[in-house]
């Protein structure tokens, strides 16, 4: 291998590894300090007869505004989530 090729290969290897480490550090910081909010599913889905008008999720509380279009009075309403 000639000197120019060896020099180019060493340059690519050195700065390639530095780039990989830099990307790992940036992604670790991203997911540690607030990047996870982009992966929260922000949907409010109800069964037939109920319409989710608005919702809010805060630390420790969930607020829902639900419209009953079922046609009957509802006296017992239970919410469940597989992720809580």
Explain this structure to me?
- There is one protein chain.
- With 84 residues, this protein is an alpha+beta fold.
- The protein has two domains: 1-40; 41-75, no CATH class.
- Helices cover 36% and strands 20% of the residues.
- The protein has one helix at residues 3-32; strands at 50-58, 61-68.
- It has a two-stranded antiparallel ribbon with strand order 1-2.
- The longest helix has 30 residues, at 3-32.
Q: What's the short version?
A:
A two-stranded antiparallel ribbon has the order 1-2.
Quickly list its features:
84 residues, alpha+beta, 2 domains, two-stranded antiparallel ribbon, 1 helix
Topology:
Blueprint: H1 3-32, E1 50-58, E2 61-68
Antiparallel strand pairs: 1-2
Rg calculated over all Cα atoms: 26 Å
Which residues sit in consecutive blocks of at least 5 with pLDDT less than 50? none
- The share of residues in extended strands comes to 15-25%
Outline, from the CA principal axes? Answer: rod-shaped
User: How many beta-strand runs?
Assistant: 2
Q: Helix count?
A: 1
What structural class do you assign from the helix and strand content?
A: alpha+beta
